[in-house]
């Protein structure tokens, strides 16, 4: 007859529960996995499957009672680490959405917005188009698998321990958040520049011929030029989008190292 000691059972539960918490934290926020259209049951099931694969290779975890206060603190730490890693990828996607918002407002389509269940707010149509395009690139280049590989590697870079993590990880996430604006401007710059030239030309035309109705001809011309520029720029957006997503994956590793305990 096989006898299982309570201490061994507690160790097995902890060795599975703590990696599962970090994995679920990433899946809850990261692009594609964290989309609100994905049912919570699917996310939890995927997290359990990944934990069953990753947990056996995780470095040895502290032998603590899963119901103790220290074990609960470790659980919270793993959740925070997972959320921070997933948020790094979400920021990369938010940079693309920012570019779409800038382009839409410059084209005059700022009013063309709808409710986005992901952000719980109004989102520009162009922004959603860029976000969907980025997700297609994300899947086509298998970067979602690279995210999972980075998640599995994080348990070696930052093993599960009872020590308090460093707060440098939060500063890393905050500094990475500024990439939303820089990436948005960089991605939208060619289209915004063309629209700026168009608006300047319309201004000169109106000055030369005041009888022209600038509101009657300017609005459709600006929208038309915007769509033409989007169509012209789309073939060249693949590499910048891939570089931005890869930068987000690299930041996931940096955030993991930033959470390394000081002692």
TrEMBL record:
Keywords: Bacterial flagellum, Cell membrane, Cell projection, Cilium, Flagellum, Membrane, Transmembrane, Transmembrane helix. GO terms for cellular component: bacterial-type flagellum basal body; plasma membrane. It is found in: Cell membrane; Bacterial flagellum basal body. It holds the Pfam family Bac_export_1. The keyword Zinc-finger does not apply. The chain crosses the membrane at residues 12-34, 40-59, 71-92, 98-117, 129-152, 180-202, 214-237. The keyword Cell cycle does not apply. One of its GO terms (biological process) is bacterial-type flagellum assembly. It is a multi-pass membrane protein. It comes from the Bacteria. Belongs to the FliR/MopE/SpaR family. Role in flagellar biosynthesis. This is Flagellar biosynthetic protein FliR. The gene is fliR.
